[in-house]
Design goal:
2 copies of one chain form a homodimer. Chain A is an alpha+beta fold. Chain A folds into 4 domains: 2-87, Uridine Diphospho-n-acetylenolpyruvylglucosamine Reductase, domain 2 (2-Layer Sandwich), CATH 3.30.43; 94-212, 2-Layer Sandwich (Uridine Diphospho-n-acetylenolpyruvylglucosamine Reductase, domain 3); 216-328, Alpha-Beta Plaits (2-Layer Sandwich); 335-422, 2-Layer Sandwich (Alpha-Beta Plaits). Chain A has helices at residues 2-11, 21-28, 48-60, 112-121, 138-143, 151-154, 189-193, 227-237, 251-258, 285-301, 314-325, 327-330, 349-363, 392-396, 399-412, 428-434, 437-450, and strands at residues 17-18, 42-43, 65-68, 84-87, 94-98, 103-107, 124-125, 161-168, 173-175, 201-209, 211-212, 216-224, 243-250, 274-282, 307-310, 337-338, 341-343, 368-372, 379-385. In chain A, the strands form 5 sheets. The first copy, chain A, has a 5-stranded antiparallel sheet, sandwiched between helices. Chain A has a 4-stranded mixed sheet with strand order 1-2-4-3. A 4-stranded antiparallel sheet of chain A has the order 13-14-12-15, with helices on both faces. In chain A, a hairpin with a 4-residue loop joins strand 8 and strand 9. In chain A, helix 1 (2-11) runs antiparallel to helix 3 (48-60). The longest helix of chain A is centred in the middle third of the chain and has 17 residues, at 285-301. Chains A, B: Pfam families: FAD-oxidase_C (PF02913), FAD_binding_4 (PF01565).
Chain lengths: 462, 462
C-alpha cells in the first residue's frame, strides 16, 4: 500500500492531500457517532483532473477508494476503513447557470444550500431540501439519490439531474454534463451514477434542472384520527398537481417535539392521534387560501379531519414546518430508537402499520413505534422507540430482531427496504439476501463492468 | 442455425411462432419503405415465460434476436436481417391500474393508444402522444425513449416509467415492476432498458406513471417574425409550469400543409415567416383564456408577435393541432427530404438555424430547410427539402453530405444527433465516430456485461 500512497503524495500538489490526523479526524467521524473510521491519506482535489490523477494512481496500485461529500450519510457509506479518502469539499464552483435552459452546472463539493441560494438568486427553484442542506454536498446527494419533502411534486434527486461528470475507476473522465432534455444516443449513462454511492466512479460535477419559483406556497396543518385517514385525503389534496408536500406525524412523535423544544409550541388546543402537514404551490396567496379552504372544508364535511390550521402568514407557516423538521431530533426525548427508512405502495400504508406495529410488540413488548414522514411517496421513517423506563443499550441490541420483521412486511407488500438513505454498509447484507437473484446478478455485472478491480467504495452496496 | 430454429419450434406452443412468409411479410417492411428485412422465424409469445423460453434457446444456440413492437421505428432498429424476430404484439394486457398510486402496469405489446384510453377511463392522464400512437407499442416507445409533444411539461418516456419487466440475454426474467416513487436499493436497473433499443434485453411489461387530468387545455396559434422570436417567448409563456406544448413551424412547412390537405385551412388572413403552437394545462376555461390573453397581450406590446389566435372551443383547438400533426406528411408536397432529428441547447436554436441553413446551401444550392418541432425542448426536426424542380433521387444521394455538416454544428453547440428517434442502424456509425471514447467505452462495457454473446439486437446502436 505505501508505494501507492507515496505515488499519490508525489503526483498531487501540496494542499491536495494530507496525513495530518487532526485534519483527517472530522472526516472519520459520523455525526451520530454510529461509525468511526481510518484512512492512510485524505485527498482533497481542487479540480476534476486532480481527482482523475488520484484515481489513476489508486487504480495502478489497486488501492481502494472512498469518496466523501459533506459526511452526512446515514448508512455508513461515508466512513472509510483503510480506503484512500477522497473528499470533494474543495470543488465548490457553480460553473454555469442558464435561465433559458433552466439548467445549472455545479461541482460535486458545493453544498446543497449554495445550490438553493444560487437558484433563488436567479429567480428559480431547485426543489430539493433536506435537514442537512447546509453541509451535504451535490456529489453526496446525487450519489445517494437523496429524497426530502418535495419528492411528491418534483421526484427524487435522480429526476432533478440532466447529467453528470464522473471520474471512472480507471481514472478516465466521463463527461455527461448537458442541459438537453432530449438525447437518445445510447444508454442513460449519467443515471447509473445516481444512487450508486460512489461504487461506479466519483461524481465531480452535475448539471441540475431548475424550475420556475412558485408565486406562493400555502401551508396547512391538520389533526387526524388515523394514518389511513391521511392517505384517504391524498387524492383530493393533490388539487391538480399543486400539492408539493404531504408529511404525516403520529401523536407520540409530534408531542415529543412540541412538549420538549424551546420555541416550538403546539398550535392546536387539543391533541390528535395523527397530524398532516401539506404545502400547495400556487400563483397567489388568494389562490392558496381558496384551495386550502376548499379541500379541507370538504374533508370536514366527510368527517375525514378533526381540526385544521391554514397558515395565514410566513411566520405561522415556518412554525408549522419547524415541528416536522424537529421530528428526528425530537426522538431523543423518547430514549433509544431503532430506525427504518422504508417505502410501501401508498395504498398499503395502513396495512403496513397494522402488521408492523403488531410485529414490533412481539419482539419487544411495550416498544413505541414512531412512523412519520413522506406518506405522499409511501415513504415511512418507521422508528421504534424503547419502552418507557427500559434500558437504552439493552433495547438497541434488538436492532436486527426488530428490523427483519419490518423488512419482511415491506417485501410482502412490494415495498423497498431503503427509500432514501441508501444501502451503504448498513443494509448491504439485507440487499444481498432480499433482492432477487436476477437483480443481484445485474447489479454485480454492472459493478464488474465499470470497476473490475473493485477499488471504488468496495465495502459499500454491492 | 437450423438446429436452434428447430429447437424454438419444438419448445414453443403452436401459434407462438410462424415461418409463413405471408404472415411474416408485414413485419419485414418498414412503413416508409426505407428498410426491408428477412428472418428465419417470427416468434409471437403470449407470455413473459414464452419470451424467456425463446431467448434461452437463442442464447444456447447463439442465435441473434431482434425484438419488435408496432414496427413504427424510424432508424432501422426494427427491421431484421436474419435475426430471430420476436414480436410482442400478442402481449397486450393491462395487468393493473391503481389510481391511489397513480400507476399502471401494462404489457409490452399494448398500443400506446390503449394505454391512453385506459388512463382516460380511470380519470388520469398518461402524457405521451405520438402520431403513431394507434400502432406503436409500450415496449417500442420505452425501448426508443420516444418523445412527442408533451416532453416540455412531463419529460420523455424515460420519466414516465416506474420500472420494467425484461427478459435478459440469458433468458432470465428481471422484474423491476413497481409503483414506488422512492427505492434506493442499488443502481437504476430499469432505466438501463429505456432507450436501449432492445440491445440489453426485451422489455415485456412496464409500470407507468399516471397524472391528474388537467381541467382544461388552452391552445393558441401565433404568427412570428423568426425562430429566435419564438425562443424569446418561452420564458413568459411558461406561466409557472402550466405550458404543456411549445411547437414551432416555418412558413414553408406550414404552407405545405394548409395549401395541400383537404379539410385543413389556414386560420390566419396573412402568411407569417414562423408559427408557434402552444398549450397551457389549467383548471378552467376562464383561467386558460386569462393566461393566453395575458402572455400574448404582453408579447404584442413588446412587438414579439405578428398575429395570434386563441382557441375558443374544441373544434378550433383541434383544427390548429391538425396543422402541426400534418407537418411530416406535408413535406411530400415539397419533394424528397433529407431528415434530421436533433437537439441543441434552447438558447442556441437561432445560432443553429443560422449556421445550418448556410451549410445546407453550400452542399445543395437552392435546397429548402424545413426546421420544425419541439423548440421548448431544443428539439428540431431539421428536414431539408429538394430544390424546386430538381431531381428527387439525385437530391437524396446527398443524404450523408447534408447530414454531416448538421451533426458537426450540433456537436459544436453541445447538442445531440438523435433527440427522440434513437440510433438504430441509421446512426450507429455516427454515434461511434462522434461520441467521446469514454462514452463509447462505457456503452460497450455495459453491452458486454449484459449481453456477452451479442445476441440482443446485435446490429443496433452499440
Amino acid at each position: 500500500m505505501s508505494a501507492g500512497i507515496d505515488a499519490l503524495k508525489e503526483a498531487l500538489p501540496t494542499g491536495a492531500w494530507t496525513q495530518d490526523p487532526d485534519l483527517i479526524d472530522p472526516h472519520l467521524r459520523e455525526w451520530r457517532d454510529k461509525y468511526f473510521g481510518k484512512t492512510p491519506i485524505l485527498v482533497t482535489p481542487r479540480t476534476t483532473e486532480e481527482v482523475a490523477t488520484a484515481v489513476k494512481i489508486c487504480a495502478a496500485h489497486k488501492l481502494p477508494i472512498m469518496p466523501q461529500g459533506g459526511n452526512t450519510g446515514l448508512v455508513g457509506g461515508n466512513t472509510p476503513q483503510d480506503e484512500v479518502l477522497i473528499s470533494l469539499k474543495k470543488m465548490t464552483a457553480i460553473r454555469d447557470l442558464n435561465t433559458t435552459a433552466n439548467a445549472m452546472t455545479v461541482e460535486a463539493g458545493a453544498t446543497l444550500q449554495s445550490v438553493l441560494d444560487a437558484a433563488d438568486e436567479a429567480n428559480r427553484k431547485f426543489p430539493l431540501t433536506l435537514s442537512s442542506q447546509g453541509s451535504c454536498t451535490v456529489g453526496g446527494v446525487l450519489s445517494t439519490n437523496a429524497g426530502g419533502n418535495h419528492v411528491l411534486k418534483y421526484g427524487t434527486t435522480k429526476e432533478l439531474v440532466f447529467g453528470v461528470e464522473a471520474v471512472l475507476a480507471d481514472g478516465s473522465i466521463f463527461n455527461g454534463l448537458t442541459s438537453l432534455r432530449k438525447d437518445n444516443t445510447g444508454y442513460d449513462l449519467s443515471r447509473l451514477f445516481l444512487g450508486a454511492e460512489g461504487t461506479l466512479g466519483i461524481i465531480t460535477a452535475a448539471s441540475l434542472k431548475l424550475f420556475p419559483k412558485p408565486g406562493y406556497v400555502q401551508r396547512a396543518l391538520i389533526g387526524l384520527e388515523s394514518a389511513a385517514m391521511a392517505v384517504s385525503l391524498l387524492e383530493a389534496f393533490r388539487a391538480g398537481g399543486k400539492l408539493a408536500m404531504f408529511e404525516v406525524m403520529p401523536e407520540i412523535g409530534y408531542r415529543a417535539v412540541v412538549d420538549n423544544f424551546d420555541g416550538i409550541r403546539d398550535p392546536f388546543a387539543n391533541s390528535h392521534p395523527w397530524y398532516l402537514l401539506c404545502d400547495w404551490e400556487v400563483e397567489t396567496e388568494e389562490e392558496g387560501q381558496s384551495i386550502a379552504e376548499n379541500v379541507i372544508g370538504k374533508a370536514f364535511e366527510n368527517n375525514q379531519v378533526r381540526d385544521a390550521i391554514i397558515a395565514l402568514n410566513e411566520t405561522q407557516a415556518a412554525d408549522i414546518l419547524s415541528i416536522r423538521e424537529h421530528m428526528s431530533a425530537g426522538q431523543k426525548f423518547l430514549g433509544g430508537s431503532v430506525k427504518h427508512d422504508i417505502t410501501v405502495p401508498i395504498d398499503q400504508i395502513a396495512t403496513f402499520f397494522k402488521r408492523a406495529d403488531a410485529a414490533m410488540q412481539n419482539v419487544v413488548p411495550g416498544c413505541r413505534p414512531v412512523g412519520f414522514g413522506h406518506f405522499g411517496d409511501g415513504n415511512i421513517h418507521y422508528n421504534i422507540a424503547q419502552p418507557e423506563g427500559s434500558d437504552r443499550e439493552a433495547f438497541l441490541k434488538n436492532w436486527d430482531a426488530l428490523s427483519q420483521p419490518v423488512f419482511d412486511i415491506v417485501d410482502t407488500l412490494g415495498g423497498s427496504i431503503s427509500a432514501e438513505h441508501g444501502i451503504g454498509i448498513m443494509k448491504r447484507e439485507d440487499l444481498a439476501e432480499r433482492a432477487s437473484p436476477v437483480k443481484m446478478k445485474l447489479l454485480r455485472a454492472i459493478k464488474s463492468a465499470l470497476d473490475p478491480d473493485r477499488i471504488m467504495n468496495p465495502r459499500v452496496m454491492v
